[in-house]
Amino acid sequence: MTMFATSRRRQEMSTWEGHLRAIVRCVAIWTRKPPKLGAPAYPDKQHGTVAANDIVGSTLGDCTKVTGLSAQTPLKNYSMSSIVSDKNVQCGSEEGKPLTVSFKFFTVASLQQCTNSFSDENFLRETRFGKIYLAERPECKYAVLKLRDTATKMAADEFLENVRTVAELRHPNIEELVGCCVEHGQRLLVYKHFSEHTLDDMIHRGSSHAADPGNKFLWEARIAVALEAAKALEYLHDGGGGQEGHVAVVHGHFRPEHVLVDGEARVRVSGCGLAPFAQPSASGATTDWHDDTLSYVSPPEEAATTEAATGRDVYCFGVVMLQLLTGRRPYDNVRPRGERLLVPWAGARLHDLSALRRMADPRLRGTPVPVRSLSRFADIISRCVQQEAEFRPAMAELVQDLMGATEEARMADYCGELSPVPAEYQLV
Predict the structure, then answer these.
(1) H-helix or E-strand containing 285?
(2) Residue 16 within a domain
(3) Same domain assignment for residues 181 and 329
(4) Which parts of the sequence belong to the Protein kinase domain (predicted)?
(5) What phi and psi, each to the nearest 5 degrees, are found at residue 420?
(6) Phi-psi region of 48 (alpha: psi -120 to 50; beta: other; left: phi over 0)
(7) Is the Cβ–Cβ distance between 187 and 152 less than 8 Å?
(8) Do 178 and 245 sit in the same domain of this protein?
(9) What is the signed CA dihedral for 324, 328, 329, 331, rounded to 10 degrees?
(10) What is the pTM assigned to this prediction?
(11) CA trace torsion 204, 207, 213, 219 (10° rounding)
(12) How far is CA 350 from CA 59, 296, 370, in A?
């Protein structure tokens, strides 16, 4: 029996190796400058010929598809010199079975062409993981993330394993990955463009767009943004919606700048699954490119277990909710010494309605804010920023609580509870 099992396992491994060799053979090597629309394409002669329309039309549109490759298949046998084409590839394995890769491969040339060589005009923003540029096509837009040094130093097979994990994340509130670029040692990720506005813009920069034309960012809108972001983290922590074989994904760096908000007030969280690409400090701990990193870490640092790591996401979520409530950054050295760190300063006031009134974002003052909804929101924050991870709620619980806060805000408006509000509770 033992010999039979060993033989069977070797046969399965040999089959997967054959599948991957087939992928490598099917992906063309392109050694040309970015083509002009309508110009002929000139592939490397040893890899055959492809019509110009197959390349020009797929510069940012077609996927390298090799149907049948499962989510568990190792990528160690990929030839990095081969995965450089945006060309749509259809092929089978050595046994004639179709194989699938769930993301696209882009060339450096095609991305340079659509981002104006990553010009300042196409620069969108900088995040924890790198700089993001707008890639424009007549029929669509993409957001290209140039990852930091940690990713560029990562082995290609390890990088692709991480990319595959990110590509499998599919949720209405998570930024959708389209593909990547590994040509010439580059490490770039290509996402569907969703919005140029972030929650950081709306809270701290006074950004105004169709979803907030008056630049007031009213209470109900703030709860709605928090709820949609919570749904994204719930999906990650639940291992991709609880799908069989999926493990919990920890965001690791949940911040307002990673929450995208479009003109219809829809929300998508960016940076999901990118924790392995975070820039490490000299001591080995991950550090943020902002100066307020420690404001997103609870005083007692938890062990690096998945459970504790999801607890860190919950803590970060609480810090973001505090920013929604107060309009303050997690660390502000301009304020008096006792108010510089947001969590300890605000944490002691979360169960005092009078204190809540005073520390609320000035833009909320003079606007109707239901007392029950405000109180529930503050209670959620208090539980999220508990120092010990074991006392923090799961994201699934927070989603339910925020749904309750949203409903209370709507019902208060419907029942006329917003006006008048007892003077001692009004935000003035």
Answers:
(1) none
(2) no
(3) no
(4) 118-411
(5) -85, 155
(6) left
(7) yes
(8) no
(9) -140
(10) 0.74
(11) -20
(12) 52, 18, 15
